[in-house]
DNA sequence: ATGAAAGCGCTAACAA
DNA sequence: TTGTTAGCGCTTTCAT
């Protein structure tokens, strides 16, 4: 027997019907100890492993969850994907991972792929397709950090507070000529808007000037460098910057050091990786693990048709992490 | 019709048999333009999407690939997972992601889960279960950076050269009292051994002293800090360190800066993230994208039963990236 | 406590 | 060119 054994083979070897084997496997119905034992022996002997795909087809539940994110190569997404998968696997769900690289066509393709593979639900952290595209899925979906929708649950960190906290810290550091660089994904990510609003509100309240650059941030470092470089050229008297994520902040930090400028930099995200690599960076920390936990909790509630206490919009608190002095 | 439409529904609406619909979907056999059109209209009208799970069951091929790695939260793994998924999705394969967190029991559980879900193959970058555990799977498997095996293809970067390159750079920087900290995963990862050997050989060739610490590196920063701290205490005259990965190197770098020591640090991996965050770090760069590409190429060859030109062991070249001056 | 039969949604012989 | 039939590996009524 070199072929993969199936349930029927086990049944034959144990001298029982397939039904009985199935019952043993799933602990259902009443089975005599004798038969249970014989079945288990046969399973052992054949090194039998049930085919989950066949099972999924029958019960029309796969226990697959689709994750759509820009790229696990970015620390924020790499970490949140890790936490989500980790929490889901505890609950016996399996994760299909999709990296859209911010390309709308990929996102659409992935969405269809996940539907075709009968995922029980999805968690989406990518931003290039209108959220209405997802509504058509008629599936439990939780989104992270995107436009609020009537039908899809959205989780985000408190971006407005994040913007305020950053601006307040710049003031506390005595910086008065600051700018904010704001990466706006194609489809109106509310996170960017809220962060910007928070930052601008604080400065306005203090009667200070501010300038916000809204740019489409590419993933590659070089383009970011050029962009930051020309912004620095335009503002020779700049003394503070609030960047939309830590990686961009890291680039700005090196650049400012190279130019020997005294510009105070604040980032956003506060991932483990960046915190470890750049302990001197001040940043607004998102509660990544809590966001992952909440996303999973809400998704599983929806999957189990428990819609009690499910709001459409969740906001988790952020906090400032001050960089360590060098 | 609020239920998900199936192939049969399409057939009925189009007034043809299920077979015909299947043929249209898969572009197989000869179909008249008229029927093809009618079928396509019915598909459109019902917003029908084929059930891949049912299809998988029938053809006993899922196009699922399992990825077993320590954690996508670590930049090296996050990036390699990204590349692997990216390349695989181009070939219409789907990726199930598993984060073992270096726990053997999780790794075993994931392995069984992947087998139960009928993956067509696996790429493994985790290190806590003996490789023989995988042999039993009787499945195409490619391993990254682990013990060479007779039966499983292993890809690694040239760790011995990596060790040599690092040691040579330390010498070039005029460092003569150096140590190497070597994170040895539980089950004899050859990568650690080879890097160490390369480092030690070079120093021995120059008649220089060296010291290698082989420690089980935990994931958390604090424990690493404590460990590094006591090593630094033991060696007040140290002037060079070669760390087994960039994150640990980053921690060492901050620590050395805090202590105002002149210790030259060399890391290992050269991920985009760390390169961006710490451009001043000198490191041995692994060809991450090339490793991902090769892993996928070999895996798909094995899946397609093409074993020509498949060796059991592949080594890709590393290079030194010198940190930028601050 | 156990088994026979039907079927989850799809595809591939084999016929016509 | 199209349809009929059987079956991928499993589970679940419904009998007994």
From TrEMBL, chains A, B:
Q: Name one GO molecular function term.
A: DNA binding
Q: Which Gene3D superfamilies match?
A: 3.40.50.2300, lambda repressor-like DNA-binding domains
Instruction: Name the coiled-coil region(s).
Output: none
Annotated InterPro entries: HTH_LacI, Lambda_DNA-bd_dom_sf, Peripla_BP/Lac1_sug-bd_dom, Peripla_BP_I
UniProt keywords (A-Z) are: DNA-binding, Repressor, Transcription, Transcription regulation
Q: Where is the HTH lacI-type domain?
A: 5-59
- The protein in question is named LacI family DNA-binding transcriptional regulator
Q: Which organism is it from?
A: Sporolactobacillus shoreicorticis
């Amino acid at each position: 027997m070199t072929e993969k054994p199936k349930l029927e083979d086990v049944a034959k070897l144990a001298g029982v019907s397939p039904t009985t084997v199935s019952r043993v496997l799933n602990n259902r119905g009443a089975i005599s100890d004798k038969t249970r034992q014989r079945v288990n022996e046969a399973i052992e002997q054949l090194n039998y492993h049930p085919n989950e795909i066949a099972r999924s087809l029958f019960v029309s539940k796969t226990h697959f969850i689709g994750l759509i994110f820009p790229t696990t190569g970015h620390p924020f997404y790499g970490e949140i994907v890790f936490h989500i998968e980790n929490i889901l696997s505890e609950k016996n769900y399996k994760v299909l991972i999709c990296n859209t690289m911010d390309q709308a066509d990929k996102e659409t393709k992935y969405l269809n792929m996940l539907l075709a593979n009968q995922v029980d639900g999805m968690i989406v952290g990518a931003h290039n397709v209108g959220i209405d595209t997802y509504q058509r899925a008629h599936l439990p979906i939780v989104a992270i950090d995107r436009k609020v929708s009537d039908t899809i649950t959205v989780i985000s960190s408190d971006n407005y507070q994040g913007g305020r906290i950053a601006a307040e810290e710049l003031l506390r550091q005595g910086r008065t000529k600051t700018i904010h660089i704001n990466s706006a994904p194609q489809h109106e990510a509310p996170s960017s808007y809220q962060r910007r609003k928070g930052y601008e509100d604080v400065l306005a309240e203090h009667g200070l000037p501010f300038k916000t650059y809204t740019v489409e941030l590419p993933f590659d470092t070089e383009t970011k460098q050029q962009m930051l470089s020309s912004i620095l050229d335009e503002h020779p008297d700049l003394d503070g910057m609030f960047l939309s994520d830590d990686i961009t902040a890291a680039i700005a930090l090196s650049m400012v050091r190279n130019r020997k400028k005294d510009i105070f930099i604040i980032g956003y995200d506060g991932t483990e990786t960046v915190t470890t690599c750049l302990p001197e960076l001040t940043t607004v920390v998102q509660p990544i693990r809590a966001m992952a936990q909440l996303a999973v909790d809400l998704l599983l509630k929806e999957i189990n048709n428990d819609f009690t206490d499910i709001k459409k919009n969740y906001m988790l608190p952020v906090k400032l992490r001050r960089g360590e002095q060098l």
